[in-house]
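Checklist before submission:
- one chain only
- standard amino acids only
- sequence pasted in full

Submission:
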Amino acid sequence: MTLISDLSPQAGQEFATLPDALAHWAATCGGQHAITFVDYPVGHAGDSPGVATSLTWRELDTRVTAVAAWCGRRARPGDRAAVLVDQSLDYVVAFLGALRAGLVAVPVYEPSPLPGFRTRLSGVLADCAPALVLTTRRHADLVSEFLEHHALDRPAVVAVDVVPVADAVNAPPPRPESLAYLQYTSGSTRNPAGVMVSHANVAAAATQTVRVYQGRPGSTVVSWLPLYHDMGLIVGLAAPLMGGLSSTLMDPVAFLTRPARWLELMARAPGPAITVAPNFAYGYTAARTTDADLSGLRLDNVATFGDGSEPIAPSIVDSFYERFAGCGARPGMFRQGYGLAEAVLLVTSSPAGQPPKTRTFDRARLAAGEAVDVAPDAPAGSTLVSAGQPVDQLVRVVHPETHRALPDGQVGEIWTSGPNVCLGYWGADDAVSAAVFRATLLDAHGAAVTPYPGCAGWLRTGDLGVRRDGDLFVTGRLKDLIIADGRNHYPQDIEFTVEHAHRAIRRHAVVAFSVAGSGDQGEYAVVVAERSRHATDDLDVTEVADAVRAAVSGEHGLAVRDVVLLGQNELPRTSSGKVRRAECRARYVAGTFGGRG
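Returned file contents:
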């Protein structure tokens, strides 16, 4: 099997840990630009360029050393240090300071009034029991009040923007095999699960990311993704640090308020620009960028638009090209990929310089577990975008019950093995972590399949996919399949149909799932959707629900029992903007959604 790293030249030098990389760049190119944060304060005009604050490599190293020295006098190596800082340079300093001190960083966020955030944050802090909470002077009182209100053990609160300068850190340098940080997954607010990431894991993942996206000296990474999210942390912080690239960051809210800012930062980048975002962000940007925003915008400087973290919709990719082709966007700029927090970030990626590769499969056969090609315009076809080939790791598609590897063309659970696969779940019984992170893969004859060199086993991703001609196509989540009348349906197929069933339904704001019926009724399908901006106050909800039922029945042969129509921005989402399907199902069962049709 060909690995992406075999196709792309290595960029820069490899380091065992992120603190090692920072020390190297500070010593060898200390006066050069390292990182910039562009702030768009509330109230600024829509076309404001924002306020940029930058650090050189030497300045960044100095601030990180100061935080590490302060932390090292108040906590022991291996203690947890929660990072409760808003998106800023202070977040980068706090995270790296914890690592340099030998602590286990816990990237989260400052207390937020947004629904569910406080509950989730208190659950994370209770789970990891930090000895220190790193924040800023502006949020110190708010953080202290939050800790007291939720009756959490009182860790020391550190304002990283006012710690005194220090010359050295007393703690020994972290070892590659030691624990670097806990990455709490974004899928559930009720039961947070902390993925244990070693220094070797994050170094491997950061190196993979630089190689895949062909980072070079002079390249600039541009990111609006939150730094407490796995993709944001690796793309915006770890990969630039590992490769010696400059990084330009902005706040996610600034992106959501005016997504053209993201493009403008790439256009102004001093070197080739690299960015990565979830698939929905490209459709959102195309829809929310005005003609005035396009005036003078040039994207010829962009080397890579990375696209991943969720199944990739061809229509979203096409809408982005169509909208920005006149600004220099080209199909070969896009890089599709697949990854997850348990593998730090990337598992597969498409080759550089090639337009997205799509294949259309018979929808019913695909749901039954077999990828059968049909014509691209086939009425019963499901068009998928390739997520590419493995990135410095081994990938197999596996029968989820027998644990046997499946041949090309058959749908199964995606398993991977590589140096980026994490240690397990924090606080979980070792048998639980072993079942997910160190599973035993069997070949067709029942013999164990050797994992990646140096790895103890295989990671079970919980995602479904199929391999065809060397490419991986992600088809959905194992737990999210809608099973009705003995047939499988992928929720994203249903959601696409619902989006186009009525103009009152908002695009990319639909979730479909199944719930258990009473007695022997089996499972039935439910659709929850947000209203579009075209929906009026006197909208006939029954008319919309009837249109949804008719479209889904006609396209998929599936009866939708219930349709719930919400206001805009009422669907629960992850930190990267994906709809929380499991939480939607839980809220529906609990009866906390209104708007039934």
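Reviewer check: The mean pLDDT is 89.
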